[in-house]
Specification:
With 243 residues, this protein is α/β, with parallel strands linked by helices. It is built from seven helices and eleven strands.
Length: 243
């Protein structure tokens, strides 16, 4: 496949994407080495313990390595990028009988990546995305996730209705008008879905009476918490017993 491609700056229509930087590239080769097309190094890269580990894994997994400053300069959006991973976009399937995090129409790439990393920190590996949504293979998402994306199972649904018909888990919809206050009710035993809305518009009001609607209380000095902070608080509260 690689020989037929002339690598260009990322485009959503491409069948491949990139990792920019040492750490996300290391996570790529460690967790998704079968999808790696090649790793590109800068000749200006200074050898370190992390780089040695990355090179060693590439040797063990027989991953193609190339030293090419011009290619890095052409592909990277920042001047201080010294390592790029090129990988095939992959299709995931959700682990059955597991907890899920659900994002409804997410629109910010930085938020998406931060949420991925936070999920992994609380041992939630299933991410459900309800379209329309940001392109989660965009290198900006991958960089914000610090490579956490390569340890997650990610599935997209075309509509909220399709998702609701799919998942049998107990559902908690996080909304400013939520009827239950997080931390003030007993979390039921069993698998759960934590559902969050779009950064600007949230979730539809008709979900207030579907399963459980939850609000995260904060002071009246702000109108709302940002999405990654809200997700982090909820993940912590729901994961207390397993930490």
């Amino acid at each position: 496949m690689l020989e037929e491609l002339k690598l260009t700056k990322y485009d959503k229509s491409n069948e491949y994407s990139y990792t920019f930087g040492i750490f996300p590239t290391f996570e790529l080769v460690k967790n998704r080495y079968n999808e790696v097309l090649k790793i590109i190094f800068s000749t200006k890269l200074k050898m370190s313990e992390d780089i040695e580990k990355l090179v060693q894994i590439c040797k063990e997994k027989k991953i193609k390595v190339e030293y090419n400053d011009k290619l890095i300069n052409r592909l990277a959006s920042k001047e201080n990028c010294f390592v790029i991973g090129v990988f095939k976009k992959f299709i995931s399937s959700l682990c059955s009988n597991k907890n899920n995090l659900v994002l409804y129409h997410p629109s910010d790439m930085g938020n998406m990546g931060t949420i991925m990393r936070t999920m992994l920190g609380f041992n939630i590996n299933n991410l459900i995305i309800i379209k329309p949504a940001v392109d989660y293979f965009n290198p900006k998402v991958i960089r914000a996730s610090m490579g956490a994306i390569f340890s997650l199972n990610i599935v997209e649904f075309d509509s909220l209705e399709e998702y609701l018909n799919f998942s049998k888990n107990k559902k908690y919809f996080f909304m400013l008008k939520g009827k239950k206050v997080l931390g003030k009710f007993k979390i039921e035993d069993g698998k759960f879905d934590l559902i969050f809305g779009n950064e600007a518009s949230g979730l539809p009001d008709d979900l207030l009476d579907y399963d459980e609607s939850v609000v995260i209380k904060h002071s009246d000095k702000i109108d709302s918490l940002n999405l990654p902070i809200s997700v982090g608080i909820a993940l912590y509260e729901f994961s207390k017993s397993s930490l």
